[in-house]
Specification:
alpha/beta; D-amino Acid Aminotransferase, Chain A, domain 1; 30 helices; elongated; Glucose Oxidase, domain 1; single chain; Dna Ligase, domain 1; eight-stranded parallel barrel
């Protein structure tokens, strides 16, 4: 039987020794019922993590027992009882009465005195009143299953003891805003058993500096290999309100263990046209940023690394993923953690199943922005000016609005998807949509103008960080991959991946690593410029191509560095997905006709009659015609290992015809600082030419392993062009001659203690092919992610037979 309101008041006061105000450093995680989720978390960090170097502003908490005392003194228990049992249509009227009563409530004399005394003690000998943040902390807030984000009021820059008491009243009254009442009802929290504590913290002057949020996993896909930091100028309220889009930084967690590494990926700059500063009555006021400020990076790499390391300490202490708020004081330059709460979306999902959606038959793109989540949805557009227009919004419609705040939640709950003009990855819309599992495309700029009310659209977040809104109803194909019953195999099963965004869809697969990263795919898709055109722009004569290269690279003088940084960022993310397993990166294996199609490529590529058998793979790397381009590839690889701290990166040399050619490549790599065996660097060899197998022992002296490429091996064994439609029926990696070569390589390589992997497409297209490889004694198989489960099951079956 649950206690009565009177019993709750008496019990809470007894739990705090009769005190209504307690220092933050005297409470901890077990005191949520006494000081609410926010203050309990702040107290825990202050008490346990300050000594470890995580700075938290000092302060005090007005306990939940004080709330119950106010309720009892002002005889509000009957109104709360009515709210808890009333018809939902009556809730707003009752909630309004409670708010009005609490705004003017009589406080017990000792409560007001305790608040004033605690504030005066915090101010110490300061001749001027100090500024504090007065923040709501409900006893059903910041829980692992419900965040209550934005439901209750907080006030910043409050000065003076009497104003702190007044702000306390306003915080308590916010327990009964319509949005807070609705949220509790939706999440089955009883109004009679939720109280409000209030935290008072020394104010960090982030209005003169910067602030933001931080996650110990990717909030859109749950990937726990990154720390995500969002940053804006000034106070953080415009970030949550969707008025500005933050700068986004990603830190590769595995690189943080190396104190000499700097595993910060290039920033994704947000549009920061305004910032929030201290305004009247403790509320933020917006001011315009200069163009230079709006376009400048908020945080240095040093600052991002400092925050990320604090985040790891906080997560380790709480034993679960966390969502934090941080602030940087513009007067002192000091950085602080001002809030931490459990991450309530991705950490609650079942990681033993992977759900993905493919969107096809798409119409014209009408808007694009920041993708929230990885899902897609279709529906009829309703362009709304405010939540008060929600009566014409039907279940399953697509909400299009300028931005959202907590008052929009009842409408958002009915939406198939949400599209906004403003907002980024940590705005109110993003937080709510992640919690609801609703796909959203935010920060489109002019969605309310270019998307017509009443039309049918498809909202897709299925292709990485950039979301789209397209005309018409597209075909959505959903796939569910169950992982709970996957067997454990002796033969390692790895993944073939080359797209960092796509890799984040598959990070939860229990793969042994990434067995094949095709670098040329990354260069073509993410860069699009011939490496030599960046190393030697003076040799590109096409002015239109030069202009496009300049636009992509931000000026030819910086083109080479742009290539290195961008390629390294993509490779680094793939290494993080693979960690702690290897990520085997195959050096570029463009053919001359493919290279020529890149921007600037025609100036550097000869025309060949048969590019498939021409100047490709290992033959290019030391050649003067590509040597400087290859140097850029090597710089990117070194950056991944040495700067980003991803020591699990291994290198694979493709299409290497002779042992002498292998020696040349090893020498070039060494001259670029990539020495086989140094700091654990492994260099593998693609086995895709019959000579690789015929001279296997010689090649084995020069590599740490072989990886069979079945397409080229089949082509060169059977003399069949792999791209010939006429001869397609004669091209097969299951041909006895090809299988015999594979068997021969495995036996001869194992005789000299060299492992053999298989990274060709055959096991992905035909999972039964994996059985044959296991029977031959293959060490590992690398497959496409969507065939991982089937291949793993086939491998286990083969191993047990």
């Amino acid at each position: 039987m649950k206690p009565s309101l009177a019993e709750l008041s008496t019990g809470h006061r007894a739990a705090t020794g009769g005190r209504w105000v307690v220092p933050l450093n005297s409470v901890g995680s077990g005191d949520v019922d006494i000081v609410g989720g926010k203050c309990a978390s702040l107290g825990e960090m202050t008490r346990e993590l300050t000594a470890a170097g995580v700075p938290v502003p000092d302060g005090f908490a007005v306990t939940a027992s004080a709330y119950w005392a106010v309720v009892e003194l002002n005889d509000l228990g009957r109104l709360i009882e009515r709210l808890a049992t009333a018809d939902p249509s009556e809730s707003p009227r009752i909630a309004q009465r409670l708010r009005d009563a609490l705004h003017t409530a009589v406080l017990p004399d000792s409560l007001a005195d305790q608040i004033r005394n605690a504030y005066t003690e915090m101010a110490g000998t300061s001749p001027q009143p100090i500024a504090v943040a007065v923040r709501s902390s409900a006893t059903a807030e910041d829980l692992p299953t419900a965040s209550f984000a934005g439901q209750h009021e907080s006030f910043l820059g409050v000065e003076g003891a009497d104003d702190v008491v007044s702000a306390y009243r306003s915080c308590v009254a916010s327990l009964f805003t319509d949005r807070a009442v609705g949220y509790r009802q939706e999440n089955n929290f009883d109004h009679r058993h939720v109280a409000l504590s209030v935290g008072v913290q020394r104010m960090v002057r982030s209005d003169l500096g910067s602030s933001g949020v931080m996650f110990t996993l990717d909030p859109d896909n749950g990937f726990d290999g990154v720390i995500v930091v969002d940053a804006v100028w000034g106070l953080g309220e415009p970030l949550v309100g969707g008025v500005v889009e933050a700068d986004r930084y990603q830190v590769l967690r595995s690189g943080l263990s190396d104190p000499s590494a700097r595993p910060v990926l290039p920033v994704r700059l947000g549009s920061k046209a305004v910032r929030a500063v201290r305004g009247a009555a403790g509320l933020p006021a917006l001011v315009e940023n200069s163009e230079a400020m709006a376009n400048s990076q908020v945080l240095s790499s040093d600052a991002v690394l400092r925050l990320a390391r604090w985040a790891v300490l906080v997560e380790e202490h709480f034993g679960a993923p966390v969502d934090m708020e941080w602030a940087c004081d513009g007067l002192t330059g000091e950085m602080w953690i001002v809030q931490a709460r459990p991450e309530t979306v991705q950490s609650q999902r079942n990681q033993l199943r992977i759900e993905s959606v493919t969107v096809s038959d798409t119409g014209q793109v009408v808007a694009s922005g920041r993708a929230i989540g990885t899902d897609a949805a279709t529906g009829t557009v309703r362009v709304l000016k405010g939540p008060e227009d929600g009566e014409r919004f039907m279940e399953g419609d697509v909400l299009v609005a300028a931005a959202t705040d907590p008052d929009w939640v009842p409408v958002m709950r009915r939406a198939a998807a949400v599209v906004t003009n403003r907002g980024g990855g940590t705005s109110h819309a993003a937080i709510v949509c992640r919690e609801l599992g609703t796909p959203a495309v935010l920060g489109c700029g002019n969605a309310t103008e270019v998307i017509a009310d009443g039309i049918e659209v498809t909202v897709s977040c299925a292709n990485g960080p950039d979301g789209t809104v397209t005309e018409g109803i597209s075909t959505l194909t959903r796939t569910v991959t169950e992982l709970s019953d996957l067997p454990v195999t002796r033969t390692r099963v790895l993944l073939n991946l080359a797209d960092p965004d796509a890799a984040l869809r598959w990070w939860a697969l229990p793969a042994a690593g990434i067995g094949l990263v095709r670098m040329e795919f990354m260069i073509a898709e993410q860069i699009g410029v011939h490496p030599m055109a960046l190393a030697h722009p003076e040799r590109v004569t096409d002015l239109d191509e030069l202009r496009k290269i300049d636009e992509l690279a931000g000026g030819r003088a910086h083109g080479s560095e742009w290539f290195v940084e961008r390629l390294a960022a993509g490779l680094g993310m793939l290494c993080a997905v693979a960690s702690p397993g290897p990520a085997v990166v195959r050096l570029s294996d463009f053919k001359t006709n493919e290279y020529a199609r890149l921007l600037g490529g025609r100036a550097f590529e000869p025309e060949e009659t048969n590019p498939m058998l021409g100047w490709r793979g290992a033959s290019r790397y030391a050649d003067p015609g590509y040597r400087d381009g290859f140097s850029l590839e090597c710089r990117a690889l070194r950056r991944v290992r040495e700067v980003l701290g991803q020591s699990n990166l291994a290198i694979m040399v493709p299409f290497c015809r002779t042992p002498d050619e292998a020696d040349t490549v090893l020498a070039v790599l060494a001259s670029e600082g990539l020495v086989r065996g140094e700091d654990g660097l492994q260099i593998w060899l693609m086995a895709e030419i019959p000579s690789n197998i015929i001279r296997a022992e010689e090649f084995a002296e020069r590599c740490d392993g072989f990886s069979i490429g079945s397409n080229d091996l089949t082509q060169l064994t059977l003399g069949v062009d792999r791209e010939s439609e006429v001869l397609a029926d004669r091209f097969g990696p299951d041909d006895p001659a090809v299988l015999r070569l594979i068997q021969d390589l495995i036996q001869r390589a194992h005789a000299v203690n060299t492992p053999v992997s298989f990274c060709g497409q055959a096991p992905s297209n035909d999972p039964s092919y994996a059985r044959r490889l296991v029977e031959m004694g293959i060490d590992s198989i690398s497959v496409a992610p969507d065939s991982f489960v089937a291949v793993t099951q086939n491998v286990a079956s083969a191993e047990s037979s």
